[in-house]
Write a structure and sequence with these properties.
The protein has seven helices and ten strands. It is of the alpha/beta class. The radius of gyration is 17 Å and the shape is globular. The chain binds 2-amino-2-deoxy-6-O-phosphono-alpha-D-glucopyranose.
Length: 241
């Protein structure tokens, strides 16, 4: 794991966007695994800016997102489909037919997960997978305690994740209790992984995940076994390492 220490959130975002843009420039038809949450917002802003300047071309890029809330429609501002359109896809020249997320509107979990697994197999392993880190060490929506060998599956969100994500909803009750997520096995199949972390609130989990034992109780700890991980974190997030 290569660790890049950034000064602050903006520095982390710029460094992450640089790595993503290098991937796109080196392989214009690359498969990018993308993430949601508040952490990648700055990196997405930089990518949009560089696209607007004419430095980046997304026309051949394929994207696969990590996860989606079960039950949210695409026009729901809290859905990850909406998030991706709002923050990246709607602002660059990406072909929407080449962007994929699990279908949160599919009520049957088996169908939704099987369909997404088929898509992931068809597009192939991501050249670069972007990841954020949950406060309890989750990646995508793979919560603590799950097997490391999963593909796309339906997950019941932990109380901690519901509370952490409630800030995006009007009330905590509105946070969906389930989500479809790419599994750890699929995440680990990516050629390169770019993990971004910011803020003191994540300092304990960064230490536990990357400097502690590899255990399903801290899902991100499995990344210690991946040969090509770039951890870009700001000083606050690395303050306990
Ligand atoms: C959600 C997403 C994760 C993300 C995590 C952290 O649970 N499913 O992919 O990494 O939140 O979010 P944030 O970046 O807002 O701290």
């Amino acid at each position: 794991m290569r660790i890049y220490k950034a000064k602050n959130y903006d520095d982390m975002s710029r460094k992450a966007a640089n790595i993503i843009s290098a991937q796109i420039i080196m392989k214009p038809d690359c498969v990018l695994g993308l993430a949601t949450g508040s952490t990648p917002l700055g990196a997405y802003r930089h990518l949009v800016e560089w696209y607007e300047k004419g430095d980046l071309d997304f026309s051949e890029v394929i994207t696969v997102n990590l996860d989606e809330y079960k039950g949210l429609t695409r026009d729901n501002p809290q859905s990850y489909y909406y998030f991706m359109n709002e923050n990246l896809f709607g602002k660059v020249n990406i072909d929407k037919n080449r962007t994929y997320l699990p279908d949160g509107t599919e009520p049957d979990s088996n169908t939704a997960c099987q369909k997404y697994n088929e898509i992931l197999k068809a597009v192939g392993a991501p050249d670069l997978q972007l990841l954020g880190l949950g406060h309890n060490g989750h990646i995508g929506f793979n919560e603590p305690g799950e097997s490391f060998s999963t593909e796309t599956h339906c997950i019941t969100l932990s109380e901690q994740t519901i509370k952490a994500n409630a800030r995006f909803f009007a009330t905590e009750e509105e946070v969906p209790r389930q989500a479809y997520t790419m599994g750890i096995k699929t995440i680990m199949s990516a050629n390169k992984i770019l993990l971004i972390v910011s803020g003191e609130a994540k300092a304990d989990i960064v230490k536990e995940a990357f400097f502690g034992p590899i255990t399903p109780h801290v899902p991100a700890s499995i990344l210690q076994l991946h040969p090509n991980v770039f951890l870009v974190a700001d000083e606050a997030a690395l303050s306990k390492c």
